[in-house]
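Forwarding these from the shared drive since the link keeps breaking.
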Amino acid sequence: MMDLPQHQRLWHILIDCTRQYRVHEREIREEDIGGVVHVVTYEPLPHAREAPETETVVDCVLLKIGVDRPKAESYRDEFASLMKPLAGMLEQGPSYITLGAEIGDLPDGARPGARPVAGNNPR
């Protein structure tokens, strides 16, 4: 298991090296809930086609992740060290669901961006 400072450092690295992109067209939904509340929902992520050419874009099915390879390479050793406590869990192969659950962001385990464990955002 990782402790909170390790989680925060991992989040810092992932946020610094990656960016989330949507794969579908922007959708805006509006609905009334119980006649009392009007809710507007939209997807704020940029579309994957907007990723700069300098990023390597990885398809994670529900979203795409842009990776700044030079930046990621600069963190390689530290990232590997931070991932050591998770080695046993990841031996069966990469799983963004498994990794996301461990680092506190299930939908975005490949590239967390919302909030890390315990709600401490390193930004």
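-- next protein --
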Amino acid sequence: MQKTVRLLLTAILLSALGGCSYLKFPGVYKIVIQQGNVITQDMIDELEPGMTRRQVRFVLGTPLIDDPFADDRWDYFYSFTDPNGREFSHYVTVVFQDDKLQYLVASEEFKIPETLLPENSQETVEAPTASNNEDDNSSENSSESSDY
């Protein structure tokens, strides 16, 4: 009876430890997690101002975020988590005007052609980033606190 209880407790303890992700057991495979649209510099280099939505979709693929409230904007986002837990991400925002490609906004690792820079456009849309949102919230909070 005592042997059975010991064996049972040992099995429960090993099962509990095996489920803990913070322990690094040798030989345990960790999956690579990729989400979103894989966008390369070659794909961005193929884009030209005035391309139709269909042509842009052919080059870049279906946008990850096709916002019904911002019909003239498509957002492509990609994130990658390696087996060590490091996370990498990038984005490309495509802006249309009259159903033609107007300009691009992208993360720093992409070089946007001169003809597709927002400065060449009359209207610009800033792509959201985590740091921009935090800065906006902190400035709003500080202005609210100074009013009282």
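Confidence is low (pLDDT under 50) at residues 130-148. The chain is about 35% helix and 20% strand.

- D.
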